[in-house]
């Protein structure tokens, strides 16, 4: 194939006209690799969401779990089950995506609904509800639940919402 015919075929592909070339025929194969990475990440997200996250009843619980998979020293997610099934880069991309989605979902939820969700998280924590509330109030490590790369104002909003919810719970504690 001459350079001129390759250029014409490439332009046809870009305009959506019937000629199909493999990306490796066009340049370096980057499009093909990106598609494979996307498909792998999507498979990991579907697997993780349907098998692991679906078993956790609250968004705060899911966020807490996903953030606990992240090694604070390396910034990498550690999940042995996924790592044994999928390529490392797909696992990292998928877990980062899930982390960001859960974080965003919580922030987009009205505070009253966040209150119910956090209550559900604490009710299933395996601890007594009030012990969990006090533990989180005494050791506010909410910033660790925030995904990397989030703007500071979103992290601040998330942390202030959690502090407010914990204060509400504490104010209702029976004597």
Q: Return the average pLDDT rounded to an integer.
A: 81
What fraction strand? under 5%
Helical/strand content category: mainly alpha
Cα-to-Cα separation, first versus last residue: 83 Å
Number of helices: 9
Order of helices and strands: HHHHHHHHH
Number of self-contained structural domains: 1
Major sheet, described briefly?
Answer: none
Proportion of residues in helical segments: 55-70%
What's the total number of strands? 0
- The general outline is elongated
Unreliable stretches: 1-25
Radius of gyration over C-alpha positions, nearest whole angstrom: 22 Å
Walk me through the structure.
This protein is mostly helical and 175 residues long. It has one domain (33-171). It contains nine helices and no strands.
Brief account:
By secondary structure, this protein is mostly helical.
Topology summary:
Blueprint: H1 3-14, H2 23-26, H3 30-51, H4 59-68, H5 80-85, H6 88-108, H7 111-123, H8 129-138, H9 152-171
């Amino acid at each position: 194939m001459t350079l001129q015919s390759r250029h014409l075929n490439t332009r046809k592909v870009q305009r959506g006209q019937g000629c199909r070339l493999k990306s490796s025929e066009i340049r370096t194969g980057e499009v093909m690799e990106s598609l494979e990475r996307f498909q792998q990440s999507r498979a990991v997200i579907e697997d993780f969401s349907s098998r692991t996250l679906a078993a956790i009843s609250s968004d705060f619980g899911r966020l807490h779990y996903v953030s606990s998979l992240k090694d604070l020293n390396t910034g990498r997610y550690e999940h042995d089950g996924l790592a044994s099934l999928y390529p490392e880069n797909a696992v990292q991309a998928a877990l980062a995506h899930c982390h960001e989605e859960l974080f965003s979902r919580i922030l987009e939820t009205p505070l009253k609904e966040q209150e119910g969700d956090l209550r559900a998280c604490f009710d299933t924590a395996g601890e007594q509800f009030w012990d969990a509330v006090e533990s989180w109030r005494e050791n506010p490590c909410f910033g660790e639940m925030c995904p990397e790369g989030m703007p500071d104002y979103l992290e601040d909003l998330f942390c202030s919402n959690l502090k407010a919810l914990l204060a509400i719970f504490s104010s209702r504690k029976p004597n």
